[in-house]
Amino acid sequence: QVRLVESGGGLVQAGGSLRLSCAATGITFNRYSMRWYRQAPGKQRELVAGISSGGSTNYADSVKGRFTISRDNAKNTVYLQMNSLKSEDTAAYYCNADFGAVNQYWGQGTQVTVSS
């Protein structure tokens, strides 16, 4: 059974930092591209950051220079370090594991709330 479990969300003041973690079980983690998405109330889910199986990364323009995605294949975990947080970063953050169209998995989400 595949499980992605996010943690690390919470309430933080603007300008602060949080680190999200997503621990995966039930998949060959090092073969998967891993991504973080977020969804704010009333908005569509959007891609925040991604990291390929080879370690290449990509970011949404809105988070470049502030967020860093990384992975630890030995721990089957992907991280999202979020610095200089803004109120517009408030959202539920979801972890995604991607190994092709029929191998897509999602976590349950973790809430990040940034107070101004």
Structure description:
The protein is mostly beta strands and 116 residues long. 0% of the residues lie in helices and 53% in strands. The chain contains no helices and eleven strands. Strand 5 (46-51) and strand 6 form a beta hairpin.
- Helix percent band: under 10%
Model regions low in confidence, pLDDT < 50 over at least 5 residues:
none
Largest sheet: 7 strands, mixed
Helix and strand content put the structural class at: mainly beta
* Assembly level: single chain
- The CA-CA distance between the termini, in Å, is 40 Å
Radius of gyration: 13 Å
Strand coverage percent = over 45%
DSSP helix count?
A: 0
Envelope shape: globular
Q: What's the order of the H and E elements? A: EEEEEEEEEEE
Average pLDDT confidence is 97
Overall strand count? 11
Keywords:
mainly beta, four-stranded antiparallel sheet, 11 strands, globular
List the helices and strands and how they pair.
Layout: E1 3-7, E2 10-13, E3 18-25, E4 33-39, E5 46-51, E6 57-59, E7 67-72, E8 77-82, E9 91-98, E10 104-106, E11 110-115
Parallel strand pairs: 2-11
Antiparallel strand pairs: 1-3, 3-8, 4-5, 4-9, 5-6, 7-8, 9-10, 9-11
Summarize the structure.
With 116 residues, the chain is mainly β. Helices cover 0% and strands 53% of the residues. Strand 9 and strand 10 (104-106) form a beta hairpin.
